[in-house]
């Protein structure tokens, strides 16, 4: 198996369509078909079943996919390391931050790490937990700092809690609910809400309203953008649950509610039972020194299932 064939195979597996995969890898469809056929002949197994809607992986194809991704990723990492070495630099460290945590106290930590470790090429990406965890498992990302672990934890991941972030239900200064006290879930559900468009976030909000014997808000906007959520609160009169640190100085008002939302608890995600590169451990240690909370729950947690973590936060996984 050569890496070029594996890239072709991955493209077809991910897109489920030979025509679209051919465009991705810059081949004609017949050339891509020949490449896959050569790979199938080499391993003596059919990789795809043809369907009217496209193609699906066979059991043999599913078995190959994970290994193919690892092999291609390792080659890309080797090329990156070689490129860095040519420039006189050391290893590359890729850190993924969830959008909430990226906006709370991370600028100084990233800058300080970069100054203290000039030999490390630091790359910081931003993404929600379910977007960056696959990259962590594929070794495209070395470390994830996120509000909570992935909704589907596996034995391949471990989680270490770092800090808690207070949050509240926010409204614009002129909102009719600002001067009310003891607002119930039923009263809050009558207004339009800005909601983070992540399955776990929506489910957590549904749990909040169910706990107050109320249904979900009838109207609102779901978005992946924290900036848009803030503007919908401040300029369009919507409500949203957001961290206090993000809303500080915006003029938004935290509502006086009967049931306050719980703190967001953030932590590190690692690949379990895999040696962590030195630069990743250095970055993690800097996070611990700067951000670790003082509550008794700030300790490593094994990724034995989401049940070990759930219940920590109304907005659990961002």
Main β-sheet description: 6 strands, mixed
Large-scale geometry: globular
Helix content: 40-55%
Task: Let me know the number of strands.
Answer: 13
Distance between the termini: 38 Å
Q: Please state the CA-atom Rg, rounded to the nearest Å.
A: 23 Å
Tell me the fraction of residues in β-strands, as a range.
Answer: 15-25%
Low-confidence stretches: 294-318
Structural class: alpha/beta
What count of helical segments does DSSP give?
Answer: 12
Order of helices and strands: HHHEEHEHHEHEEEHEHEHEHEEHE
Major beta sheet, strand line-up: 4-3-5-12-6-13
Mean pLDDT over the residues: 84
Q: Oligomer, anyone? A: single chain
Describe the structure in your own words.
β1 and β2 form a beta hairpin. The protein starts with a helix and ends in a 16-residue tail after the last strand. Mean pLDDT is 84; it is low at 294-318. The protein is of the alpha/beta class and 318 residues long. Helix content is 42%, strand content 20%. The radius of gyration is 23 Å and the shape is globular.
Topology:
Blueprint: H1 3-15, H2 18-24, H3 29-43, E1 48-51, E2 54-57, H4 59-86, E3 92-97, H5 99-102, H6 106-116, E4 121-126, H7 129-137, E5 143-146, E6 157-165, E7 167-171, H8 185-188, E8 193-196, H9 199-211, E9 220-223, H10 226-236, E10 240-243, H11 244-247, E11 253-254, E12 264-271, H12 278-291, E13 300-302
Parallel strand pairs: 3-4, 3-5, 8-9
Antiparallel strand pairs: 1-2, 5-12, 6-12, 6-13, 7-10, 7-11
Helix pairs in contact: 1-2, 1-3, 1-4, 2-3
């Amino acid at each position: 198996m050569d890496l070029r064939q594996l890239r072709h195979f991955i493209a077809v597996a991910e897109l489920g369509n030979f025509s679209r995969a051919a465009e991705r890898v810059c081949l004609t469809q017949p050339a891509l078909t020949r490449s896959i056929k050569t790979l199938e002949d080499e391993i003596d197994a059919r990789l795809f079943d043809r369907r009217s809607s496209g193609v699906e992986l066979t059991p043999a194809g599913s078995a190959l996919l994970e290994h193919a991704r690892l092999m291609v990723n390792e080659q890309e990492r080797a090329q990156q390391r070689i490129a860095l070495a040519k420039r006189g630099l050391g290893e590359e460290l890729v850190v993924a931050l969830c959008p909430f945590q990226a906006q709370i106290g991370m600028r100084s930590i990233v800058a300080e790490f970069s100054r203290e470790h000039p030999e490390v090429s630091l790359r910081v990406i931003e993404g929600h937990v379910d977007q960056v965890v696959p990259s962590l498992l594929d070794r495209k990302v070395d470390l994830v700092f996120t509000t909570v672990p992935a909704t589907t934890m596996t034995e391949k991941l471990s989680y270490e809690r770092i800090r808690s972030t207070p949050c509240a239900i926010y409204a614009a200064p002129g909102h009719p609910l600002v001067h009310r006290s003891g607002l119930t879930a039923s009263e809050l559900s009558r207004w339009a809400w800005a909601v983070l468009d992540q399955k776990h976030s929506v489910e957590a909000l549904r749990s909040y309203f169910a706990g107050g014997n109320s249904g979900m808000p009838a109207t609102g906007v779901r978005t992946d953008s924290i900036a848009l959520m803030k503007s919908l609160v401040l300029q369009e009169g919507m409500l949203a649950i957001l961290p206090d640190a993000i809303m500080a100085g915006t003029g938004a008002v935290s509502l006086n509610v009967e049931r306050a939302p719980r703190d967001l608890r953030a932590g590190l995600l690692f690949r379990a039972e895999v040696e962590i590169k030195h630069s990743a451990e250095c970055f993690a240690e800097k996070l611990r020194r700067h951000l670790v909370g003082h509550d008794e729950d700030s300790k490593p947690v094994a990724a034995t299932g989401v049940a070990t973590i759930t219940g920590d936060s109304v907005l659990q996984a961002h």
